[in-house]
């Protein structure tokens, strides 16, 4: 899902051996969603149009169905240490309700998936990418001790309410032992909504303030309807979700991240846990990752602002003055908030400084682009202690 145009093209061309339906499949169709098959799921790409949905989310609140994501619950004796052998996060330091971004790594430090972990009373709740969840499950089962139980919560739906009005809307409808405002960015807790038990975290994939809501699949229709009926809320497709995350400097696995990329190359050094984890150097690929952290990687992920109006797409080559390929665009599209085309690319480290002009070859034409600071659009997360 490198950009909304490519997302639709790929989805139309993709033929899954077996298509799964989201719990809200009929709900999406009833609201006029354009449904396409992507990564084995029938998914809503757009309702009113990607540009309009994108801007609505930035200005008000958008409701996203992300139930294709994998929701897992890990439990058992020695869980923290066992999980730390597979990911670089400080799992042991994760307090109840806290959430962290992390990475599933191979032995060479390549990224197998990116994920979120949260401390639940019964263990560690993990959300992984939909396209890789079965591979992730296999990897976890193969590499975690038998004492660790892995429950795939495939009877749950996952909704995301994102945008500056998300808090006001959700506040009207949730109950619980503590107020919703107790949640700040990357914190979660148990609440009730529309009569359903929900785990709600203040997080998302748009750069806006917002919430992710894990609920039983049987409650998805009434929860989604309750929220979408609010005047500030519109359902938003995955096309706008993709352009929102691109503006917010949020990489997408399978495009901006893959096993050929290390966390340092990807600009995700913050995910290399705590000082304790770095000093222990006991996570997969630690030798390479920590060396790159100290000395710098050969290539880096950068943001690009492209001259003109035509976007560059995933797969376009970054070229030198002799038109030899020296890098690759991994995501690209038009940024509705900026009114300009933007992209992410991997380039040699020497070209990764903001302000550097690079050349991009696409379909026989060379485009000029300037390396930009990311995120392209500032994050509006509500962090602890902020006023």
Task: Characterize the structure shown.
The chain has 387 residues and is α+β, with helices and mostly antiparallel strands. The protein has a domain at 4-68 and 154-247: Gyrase A, domain 2 (2-Layer Sandwich), CATH 3.30.1360.120. Helices cover 22% and strands 33% of the residues. The protein has a seven-stranded mixed β-sheet. It has a six-stranded antiparallel β-barrel with strand order 16-19-18-17-20-21. It has a five-stranded antiparallel β-sheet with strand order 6-7-8-5-9, covered by helices on one side. The relative contact order is 0.15. Residues 1-17 have low confidence and may be disordered.
Assign the CATH superfamily of one domain.
Probable tRNA modification gtpase trme, domain 1
The overall pLDDT average reads 94
**CATH topology tier name of one domain:** Gyrase A, domain 2
Rg over CA atoms: 20 Å
CATH class identity of one domain: Alpha Beta
- Strand count, sense and closure of the main sheet? 7 strands, mixed
Distance between the termini: 35 Å
Give the strand line-up of the largest sheet.
11-12-13-14-10-4-15
Structural class: alpha+beta
Architecture of one domain, CATH level 2? 2-Layer Sandwich
Which regions have little confidence, pLDDT < 50, spanning 5+ residues?
1-17
**Could you tell me the number of beta strands?**
21
Shape: globular
Number of helices: 10
- Beta-strand content: 25-35%
């Amino acid at each position: 899902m490198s950009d909304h145009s490519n997302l639709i093209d790929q989805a139309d061309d993709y033929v899954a051996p077996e298509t799964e339906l989201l719990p809200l499949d009929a709900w999406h169709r009833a609201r006029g969603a354009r449904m396409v098959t992507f990564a084995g799921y029938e998914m809503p790409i757009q309702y009113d149009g990607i540009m309009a949905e994108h801007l609505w989310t930035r200005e008000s609140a958008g409701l996203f169905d992300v139930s294709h994501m994998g929701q897992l619950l890990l439990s058992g004796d020695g869980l923290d240490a066992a999980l730390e052998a597979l990911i670089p996060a400080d799992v042991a330091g994760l307090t109840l309700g806290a959430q962290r971004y992390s990475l599933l790594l191979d032995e060479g430090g390549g990224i197998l998936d990116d994920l979120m972990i949260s401390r639940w009373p019964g263990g560690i709740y993990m959300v992984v990418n939909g396209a890789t969840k079965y591979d992730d499950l296999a990897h976890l089962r193969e590499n975690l001790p038998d004492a660790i139980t892995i429950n795939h919560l495939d009877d749950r739906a996952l909704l995301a309410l994102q945008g500056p009005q998300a808090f006001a809307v959700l506040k009207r409808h949730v109950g619980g032992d503590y107020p919703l405002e107790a949640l700040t960015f990357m914190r979660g807790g148990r609440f009730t909504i529309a009569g359903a038990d929900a785990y709600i975290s203040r997080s998302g994939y748009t750069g806006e303030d917002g919430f992710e809501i894990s609920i039983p699949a049987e409650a998805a229709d009434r929860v989604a309807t309750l929220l979408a009926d609010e005047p500030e809320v519109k359902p938003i497709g995955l096309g706008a979700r993709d352009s929102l995350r691109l503006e917010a400097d949020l990489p997408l696995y399978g495009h901006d991240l893959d096993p050929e990329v290390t966390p340092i190359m990807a600009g995700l050094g913050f995910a290399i846990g705590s000082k304790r984890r770095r000093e222990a150097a006991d996570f997969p690929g630690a030798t390479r990752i920590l060396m790159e952290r100290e000395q710098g990687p050969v290539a880096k992920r950068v943001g690009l602002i492209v001259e003109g109006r035509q976007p560059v797409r995933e797969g376009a080559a970054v070229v030198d003055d002799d038109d030899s390929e020296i890098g690759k665009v991994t995501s690209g599209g038009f940024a509705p908030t900026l009114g300009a085309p933007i992209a992410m690319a991997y380039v040699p480290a020497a070209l990764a400084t903001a302000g550097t002009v690079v050349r991009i070859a696409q379909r026989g034409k060379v485009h000029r682009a300037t390396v930009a600071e990311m995120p392209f659009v500032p994050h509006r997360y509500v962090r602890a202690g902020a006023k």
